Amino acid sequence: MIAHERSSQKELAFMATSLGAGKEQPVVQSVGVATRGQQPQRSSLQKRPRPIDGIVRALLFFCGILSILTTIALVAVLLSESLAFFTSGLVTLPEFLFGTRWQPVAGDFGILPLLNATIVTSFWAMVVALPLGIGGAIYLSEYAKGSTRDRLKPILEILAGIPTVTYGFFALTFMTPVLRIILGENNVSIYNMLSAGLVMGIMILPTIASMSEDALRAVPNSLREASYGLGATKFETVSKVVVPAALSGLIASFIVGIARAVGETMIVALAAGAGPVAMLTANPMVSGETITGHIARISGGDLSYASIDYQSLFALGLALFVFTLGLNFISQWVTRRFREVYQ
Amino acid sequence: MVEDYAVNPTVLVASGDLSTLSEAELVAILVENRASRLPVYVRDYLYSGDAAVFTTLPMSDLLPGVALPEGTADLTIRELSVEQQTELLLGNMDQSQLIAIVEDQVVEPSILHTWSLAESIFERDKIEAEFQENYAAQGASLFFKSWINLDFLTAPMSSNPASAGARTAILGTLYVVIVTIIIAFPIGVGAAIYLEEYTSGAQNSRTAKINRLIETNIRNLAGVPSIIYGLLGLAIFVRALSSVTGGRTIISAALTMALLILPVIIINAQEAIRAVPSSLREASFGMGATRWQTIYKVVLPSALPGILTGTILGMSRAIGETAPLLIIGASTYILLDPTGLQSKFTVLPILIYNWTSRPQDEYRAAAAAGIIVLLILLLILNASAIILRQRARRRLTA
After folding, report:
1. Which of A268, B126, B291, B330 could potentially form a cystine with B325 if both were Cys, beta carbons 3.0 to 4.6 Å apart?
2. Between chains, do B329 and A67 touch, taking CB under 8 Å as contact?
3. pLDDT tens digit string along A116-144?
């Protein structure tokens, strides 16, 4: 093999000389020789060792791997503190998962009332965000002119960039008084889950609208044109062709929206209420403390690192992490599994 | 707004003007009226570290660079006598600081009633009549207060909402965001380069696997609620690494925020790098450049606008996030400007949260002013991101 290469090289060099390719000849020779490392002396074009490239690559690898380290640290912290929580003897896993009272002072650590408030607020958020978000996306992608779309999309992005504490202020000082006027002061308490949920819906709206719009725009035009060709109206085309074709993307945006609502903290901390909650109710007009709201309220004060309250934060955090991660996985699975692929 | 005083300033000094008093006289007033709170003033006005360890550190560690009364270097603040505390305050504060404390703590202005903006404009006569009837006799005064002015930006916090400002919170926000970006920008861009230039489309199955693992991981991290990052920061940066970070300090906050915005920066930088046409890379390789030379001199310059856009988006996320900082324990009442990485801090969103959650209407008004400051800051950042992106798009299509 090596012998063969050598001979072919010699042939090449011979051909070059015999052809009398004056100026190019040494170049050909040195390249051929250098890459195979035959001659002991270095030519200028020989591949030099470049330590910088190796160092840079190692540094960049570290940057890339850091995100994995973050995940590992996240899981390790949540698991180890939760383990301390469940082995403290004050609470067992079934009590935590199925207990109907969360009153740390009395030693009751049942997640259900917190979960209940989380579900109620997220439900009302989706009641606002789903129709408006998908409706807005359909308008932007199917009905709006190009110039209108270019003007509306940045506005959506700016809406998505407003800090959530601002939405919380809005919920407490605007939405709640309005709800109290409409539904009656006696029916709606000052801190209530409905107000928090509705404003949370407004907050999620841009996320759902922009993800859904991407999904709708990915539907190829040939489908729309075929539909028109069969005599369908614009509305028939949108509702019977475009939306079904983009359904996986729409569902994925819906699930991501739920995940954001479940993890949202500041709006519920400000507007949904606080204090020991011991009730399971679907009535959104009373106050309720969500998982995130509880974590925010408890950790605000001077919390001792050895206390059961501190550990309970991590157990709640773990529940939240598993919940949102699960939703994100489902969303990715839906996108993969039900995506209609067009050429 | 009607203001009343717990102690009328004319009781303290005949003219009612505190600025005529000397520093010693001001401290004497404090000792007379609020002796038990002297350590609190030391904490609020002289100490810049984590409040959680304030009562346990010896004075020399607690207040480095501060002139201490003789023989107190090894004592904790609780072990100091009132005379020593007086000496400490007197030796380290100027007259204006002392006047601020006396006004706040001894004079204690309190707000009796507030009217809204619309009422103040359209029903002025009615407000004045009501004031004469109910409040004038007690020696209270009526005045108009707007929070949208320069004083709001430059005044430190106060327990009186009428004179409360956002100075320390604005400085805290700037500090945290700048340190966050210094940490997150190089790491985020580095990760994006690694994913796009070194491992993407790799033939080697192990490299391809690492690439896929990191990519999936980043996508999932981007979906983790921010409050969970707060728990991570609390357990690792505040608690486990407290000897390095100093506990609930700016550096802990910035590290937590950096982890939070890394996925945003990476994903945007990846897109920017992917958009660089491969013909540019091939031309560079063809001229004999190494991989790193190609990345550094060809790919990065043309991807820079896109990378900057992503960084600015990450920055505005870091400015607006409240929950993680609430968890790692940003202080809510800070009078000192942040002095370094290890000083206690507060940020604008925390200030807004704190003011909004108080029952008094005046604090809600101050919170609204805080929100305006925050939104203006974000609007400037986001607008510059959009302009940068548009410019980049124009250049790449041209």
Report:
1. B330
2. no
3. 899 999 999 999 999 999 999 999 999 98
